[in-house]
């Protein structure tokens, strides 16, 4: 039932449905993981079959950003809604707080996850922060053990793509958490180090442009967006 965009299968869910599904994993046996690919990650998957496999093996694949929505529409198989990773994370924490669930924050530079934890504890009253760890470690085993002994229900894995997707696929079950979410640079945003675009830009599908203006060093990465649209148009012609 997934919608294929250049080899990546997206779940065609609204934000509410994605959150319902995410929360349902907390009471299901086993480990689950969520990925939120944007056009840059889809392009990466075209070049890296291992990454594509890790993305497509996720329990939920959510369309982060307007580019994916446009791509799916051009291909004639529209997706219903954009489900940005950071908004999915916010919705999940609102629901987790109501149930006093616990969250482990993994990733970003030293100090960032701790700063994010402080903000999130205040913002989502009732949410338990089980622990934090920065994303620049050599050895996986002690980190996995730290998460396991924290008893966290959910882990936000913010190591950048495709590292976070590989990490969740390989280590998810051993962490004992029921849900892991790959969320890129979200901890930097929660900690207040990186600002999201103002609402106007987001609502008009221009968040990428805002990020480019405020952080021009992203230009190289952003060139993947026009490339993605070219590949979508080529794919459309083949259909
Ligand atoms: N990161 C990390 N470990 C690494 C490489 C990256 O923890 O080995 C973090 C990095 O500090 C940043 C996040 O992963 O917080 C990736 O951010 P990026 O802006 O690339 O993600 P996006 O949101 O664009 O997917």
Describe the structure.
The protein is an alpha/beta fold and 239 residues long. It has one domain: Rossmann fold, CATH 3.40.50.10700. Helix content is 52%, strand content 14%. It is built from 13 helices and eight strands. It has helices spanning 15-26, 39-47, 49-56, 66-74, 85-98, 112-123, 140-150, 163-175, 186-190, 199-203, 207-214, 219-222, 224-238, and strands at residues 3-5, 8-10, 32-35, 60-61, 102-107, 128-133, 154-158, 179-182. The strands form two sheets. Strands 4-3-8-7-5-6 form a six-stranded parallel β-sheet, sandwiched between helices. Strands 1-2 form a two-stranded antiparallel ribbon. Helix 1 packs across helix 5 and helix 7 (140-150) packs across helix 8. The two termini are 19 Å apart. The model has no long low-confidence stretch (mean pLDDT 95). The chain binds uridine-5'-diphosphate. The site of uridine-5'-diphosphate (UDP) has 14 residues, from helix 9.
Keywords:
239 residues, alpha/beta, Rossmann fold, six-stranded parallel sheet, two-stranded antiparallel ribbon, 52% helix, binds uridine-5'-diphosphate
Total strands: 8
Strand content: 5-15%
**CATH architecture classification:** 3-Layer(aba) Sandwich
Q: What is the overall shape? A: globular
Q: How many domains would you count in the coordinates? A: 1
Topology (elements, then pairings):
Blueprint: E1 3-5, E2 8-10, H1 15-26, E3 32-35, H2 39-47, H3 49-56, E4 60-61, H4 66-74, H5 85-98, E5 102-107, H6 112-123, E6 128-133, H7 140-150, E7 154-158, H8 163-175, E8 179-182, H9 186-190, H10 199-203, H11 207-214, H12 219-222, H13 224-238
Parallel strand pairs: 3-4, 3-8, 5-6, 5-7, 7-8
Antiparallel strand pairs: 1-2
The structure holds uridine-5'-diphosphate.
């Amino acid at each position: 039932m997934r919608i294929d965009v250049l080899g990546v299968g997206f779940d065609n869910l609204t934000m509410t449905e994605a959150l319902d599904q995410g929360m349902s994993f907390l009471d299901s046996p086993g480990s689950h993981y969520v990925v939120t690919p944007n056009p840059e990650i889809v392009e990466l998957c075209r070049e890296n079959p291992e990454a594509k496999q890790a993305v497509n093996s996720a329990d939920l694949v959510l369309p982060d950003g307007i580019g994916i929505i446009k791509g799916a529409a051009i291909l004639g198989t529209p997706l219903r809604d954009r489900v940005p990773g950071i908004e999915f994370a916010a919705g999940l924490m609102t629901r987790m707080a109501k149930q006093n669930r616990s969250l482990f924050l993994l990733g970003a530079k030293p100090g960032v996850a701790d700063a994010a934890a402080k903000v999130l504890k205040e913002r989502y009253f009732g949410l338990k922060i089980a622990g934090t760890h920065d994303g620049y470690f050599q050895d996986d085993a002690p980190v996995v053990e730290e998460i396991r002994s924290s008893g966290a229900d959910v882990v936000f894995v913010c190591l950048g793509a495709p590292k976070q997707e590989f990490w969740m696929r390989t280590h998810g079950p051993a962490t004992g958490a029921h849900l892991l979410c790959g969320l890129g640079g979200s901890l930097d945003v929660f900690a207040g180090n990186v600002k999201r675009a103002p609402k106007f830009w987001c609502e008009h599908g221009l968040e990428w442009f805002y990020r480019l203006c405020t952080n021009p060093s992203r230009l190289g990465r952003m060139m993947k967006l026009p490339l993605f649209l070219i590949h979508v148009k080529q794919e459309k012609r083949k259909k």
